Amino acid sequence: MTPETNDFVLADALDADELAEQDRAAEAQRILQEEADVSAWLRRIDQAREFDKDARKGYAKDRRYCEDKVDPDVYDVSVPIAGTYVNILTGFLYARDPETSVQPADSAGPSRIEDAKLLARTLEIVIARLWKKGRLKSAADQMVRSGLTVGIGWIKAAWHRETERDPATEQRIQSMREQIAALQETDRLLMEGDAPNPDELRARYEQQLAGLESQVEQVIYSGLCIDFVRAEDMQVAVSVPCLKDYAAGAWVAQRLFRPLEKAKAEYPEVSDRLSSATMFYSVQRSDGSRITGDMSDTDADAYCTGSNPRTPTESADANVCIWELWNLETRQVITLAVGLKRYLRAPFTPDQASTRFYAFFQWAPLWVDGRRHPQSLVDRSRQLLDEYNRIRTNYREHRRRAIPKLGFDNGAVEPEEANKMKAGATGEMVGLNLNGASPNTVLFPIQYNQIDPALYDTSTIRSELELIWGIQEALSSTITVAKTATEADIQQQGTESRIGYARDTLDETLSELAQYTAEAALSPNGLSHDDVVSIAGPEAFWMNTADAAMIEALVAVDIRAGSSGKPATAMKQQQWAILLPQLQQAVLQIGEMRGATPFDVANSLEQLVVETIKRTGDTGIDPYSIIPQPPALPPGMPGAIGPDGLPLPPANDPGLPPQDPGLPPDEQLPPLPAA
Question: What pLDDT shows up at residue 152?
């Protein structure tokens, strides 16, 4: 090796050391920047939590009222009115998954109206299936219950796509890598002039390798996951003056708790650092706990740090507090852990394209102008609930003091006889020696205050509570005078109008969820055509697009108003009973005037029967098992199912010659040649 070669080798080594040093400096700078960003976000979250701590304190107090956990030093008797009302209204507002209504958009135009109709029908089936598979009923029921209890309820609808690596494809990838590695030997031979240039071969191998890398992941699950989120586990940026406008806020964060070992498995990149994060433990709640004194904002939390006195034991499972922060400005999701200065995972952008960024949906029945947080029904009726318990407690105390008693002249009887009377139980016969004295002169009744039922009448309080909660008299079982049918209908209408505002806001939330579900399913990473065919059948019309505006241009996604509540009331069923005969007569007259076939008229009457059974609210009745179906056509007849599984064309089809129905399919005449 010449001196010049030694100089080149030394220069290359110095350059390599310099590059390595630059890489280490850049990595250190990146880590410092990441730690600064994480600290800044955790500080923003803490400031927002401090800003909203009074609202979380109200959550804890409202839940205690629904649990009927009152202060035993103040009330001897408590009635769980709030919790009962929450259960009643939850069943009325959300009894089933809503019915999706997808219609062709006005902007579809005549050229795309048929495709829009097919897509609309397919979307209705797909959304219903995704909601059922994602367990919307369970999450929405808890959301409504939370909204009625603490004033606001949240659910999260995120698209979950689970994949696994295909072993056969991985084997092909390994073989391809070995072939690329073998090209290094070709390079050596090329320098000696014994082989052709391998650049073209290497490029082809690398392209094949890239294609295999994209195919190695196979999808094993793709669908919508819907989860309930507790009110205290959601945090909205302080810059939002009203939580109703959270969708336009700068950021929204969800708090999650994961067992330490599970968190290490989910975030392997930082598994060695997670042990240094702040540990949280499940709160041990006692059934005998009562509202005593002032409450803290942490009383609403299900987890607390080990230093909190509510922690059961230090040996309980340790959990990591994770904040999943959705940043609208960068449209990225940031994952943080309390007590850790590094990201749990690199910030990422959600795969599903949607007109809305946040995957969170809220419902609140009562909003007050100028307030950041909604007001709960429990908060509105808290004084009445206290007054009710106070009256019942005083009534109990009065009854306890009004127990009839007898007194006796202690000087007129012997001490032994006096002790017998004191020790006598209720209904017991006690033998006394009064030394011949008359009992009327020895025993006498003690005067006590009589009970005035009007002083302890709670009907006024109950009627005011029913007015606030919108509970009709029949549901709360406070009917004292029999009602006529007309009065009952008027009362029913009043109840529906009272809770109508709550139904409207719930329908709005579910409509947004339906739109989001449709956009996520139609996105490139959503459902494939094969997935949709397995859900909606082979006639399903489907497309995948990242342009949400194209979806809005074709279809309008909504839900049928009030379809999530209980089925139609008796009054609506009576209205349908009056309307049904008129519809039946109209179908027959219109069909006769238009010259419709009996088959088309039968289809219309069939839909009336299906709608009538649907309005009864009994899902156990199958209308198609009652309605007569057309007889099966003989083989070979037009409309009958052919060998390929499709209906045979009509006999006058210009593309077919006259056929003999009695001939087997393999002896039928071939199609006529095109003109």
Answer: 94
CA atoms within 13 A on the CB side of 573: 12
Question: Tokens standing for 241?
Answer: 């003056």
Tell me how crowded residue 590 is: count the other CB atoms within 10 A of its CB.
12
Checking if the pLDDT of 78 tops 90, the result is no
Q: Which residues contact 330 (CB under 8 A, 6 or more apart)?
A: 347
Closest by Cα among 109, 162, 157, 164 to 136: 157
Q: How far apart are CA 207 and CA 168, in angstroms?
A: 18
Owner of token pair 């995704």: 130
Show the DSSP H helices in 216-362 as ranges.
260-266
- Where is 673: in which H helix or E strand? none
User: What mean pLDDT, rounded, does the chain reach?
Assistant: 78
DSSP-derived letter for residue 238 is: T
Model-wide pTM > 0.90: no
State yes or no: pLDDT of 327 exceeds 80: yes
Return the biggest CA–CA distance within the chain.
144
3-state helix, strand, coil in the chain (%, to 5): 50, 15, 35
Contact 303, 321 (CB under 8 A): yes
Taking the C-alpha atoms of residue 224 and residue 536, their distance in angstroms, rounded to an integer, is 17
Strands (DSSP E) contained in 466-609 are 555-559
Q: Which of 31-40, 47-56, 70-79, 459-468 has the lowest mean pLDDT?
A: 70-79
Query: Residue ranges of the domains in the chain?
Result: 1-51, 567-627
